[in-house]
User: Fold these one by one.
Assistant:
Number 1:
Amino acid sequence: MLKALLRPAMIFIPFLLGICFPQAHVLNETPFYIVKWFLCTMVFMACLQLDFKQLKPRKEHVIILLLNLAMGIVPYLLLKFFFPAQPVYAVTAFFVGITPTATAAPVVVSFLNGRTGFALTGFTITNLFIALALIFLLPMVTGTVTFDFAFNVARTLVQVIGIPFLIAMAVRKIFPEAKNLPKKCKLFTFSLWSFCLFILAAIARNHFMENPGESVGKVLLIGLISLVICACNFFFGRIFSRKKFARESSQILGQKNTTLTLYLALHYAGPLVALGTIFYILWHNTWNAWQMYDYDKRKLLKKSSSPRQEK
């Protein structure tokens, strides 16, 4: 159980350090833009290990993609209707819900003895089509429906997803063995993610220092919105899929590429909105830890009961 809970526990260390050192927020400003470059590196590492032979789209992947879009749009519209004077709740729900599948989702699926190829296909489809959808959705959500803004969003997505993907494919072509690099550099990639979380926590703390009027109730409600969306993602992914793909579909829809939308939320909506995605990191990692612990426990019980049955 300790091993399964290590990942969510490690979230608190960079998060608490960021709160203690709000001065670190400057690392995401000119000339550093650390979060952007770290995100590009993580996308590059994820794309290096893509095996196109494993990509076999099924109707479940289309359903997951539609649910992914719906989980961004529907909560946004509902919260905009019920809280017209507080648009931050609706925008937060959008960024939390619209986030595509995490690069680590296929890994967790493999830990749970699921179909890795199915999860890898889901990761590829959601990240590709959600990125394209964001070009049109972000201008409407942020209230800046102009060609220049849409072009800026497209350029940002090309920079953080398109270019790292193309570079990864070129490296794979020249150095086929490079596909094994991500497995050897798991600690490096995790360190990048942790440092991003440290900077994001520093940005959030700095925001509250500069805006002392922000209420604790608002932050708690943002956390609750994030929790509800997280629970719905894992639940809907399971019930809207065929039984044999239920576990994988739940993971694809529930485990999110939070670093991407954290960067976009900071860039286009501000630190308060980004808090929703930070909360989501805690929720989905806690659920993953429980799933892996429960799976290992069941596996151990099954193994221990086998000799008795033979007698």
Number 2:
Amino acid sequence: AMSGNKIADDTVNEALLERLKTSLPKILENAEVIRTTLAKIHARVTSS
């Protein structure tokens, strides 16, 4: 029974890793957009 659960856990982990791999580029893209937006806002605030 225990070994069966281990295999199930590994399958779940594999699925999560695959999903993370596919979504990671989008997450990084969004992080870059947020970073540049914050930089622009910061520049505007400090220049005024």
Number 3:
Amino acid sequence: MTCLGLGIGMLRWEKTPARYVAGAEWVDHDEAVEWVTKWNKKGLVQNLMNFGMRNGGPYIGGLCNCSRPDCASIENRLRYGQKQLIKGERVAIHNKENCTGCMNCVKRCQFGAIAADIRQNKVQIDAQMCFGCGLCESVCNDDAIELKNRRDFPILRYDW
């Protein structure tokens, strides 16, 4: 299990035929937090799934946790430019002075936004390629990566 159903759509699961449920089960808040923490440690990208409604706006239907190449949303965005997955509100900003060159963040980035700068034994982050998932920040022990609001940067403001 790597996805959590959320919101009003989950109320329909009780009426869904068993053959479609595929082992889905209800979890409480604490269990959900445990799962999300576990998936983050594994390096899975966490993203919200939005669904439309007939008589209203979109609603959040799930929290998906996936990785390349298994995640169709990530693959379709990076390979074909289809915006099934849009960038997050935040973007990773790098502080080179704090960076020790451990390269842990390079291994975690599934969007190709972080590259090793071998000459300086540091990393470089391409903010335009960053989706703001925060996987890099969560493994940076040197406080060299900080997630900042994408809208604070004119070049990124409309880059979703």
Number 4:
Amino acid sequence: MKRNNVQAISLALELAMKKHNNVLVYGEDVGNVGGVFRATRGLQKKFGVERCFDAPIAEALIAGTAVGASINGMRPVIEMQFSGFAYPAFQQLLAHAARMRNRSRGRYTCPLVVRLPSYD
């Protein structure tokens, strides 16, 4: 079956959430609305508000909570509305997520996915 990018992302998220109970999907309008391009549509209904939910429009907060969740065993997939909005999150992503393994001498890792929709 041929899929477009949004359909492929949606299917991948659903399969990951089915297979792994520690996968979280959250960000700006991803719960009720389904994200900017609707890639997360229906996930909240299938997996509940504990695993797919809306976050405030605060990119640094979204990234920071993803760092905390990931070092505590969760596997967050976060989405910001557009790639241009990611700049406030860079401190969390670069200073903390990217360096976690080295800073903790391998004690912690920080596996997370950041989704940044953009127009072609």
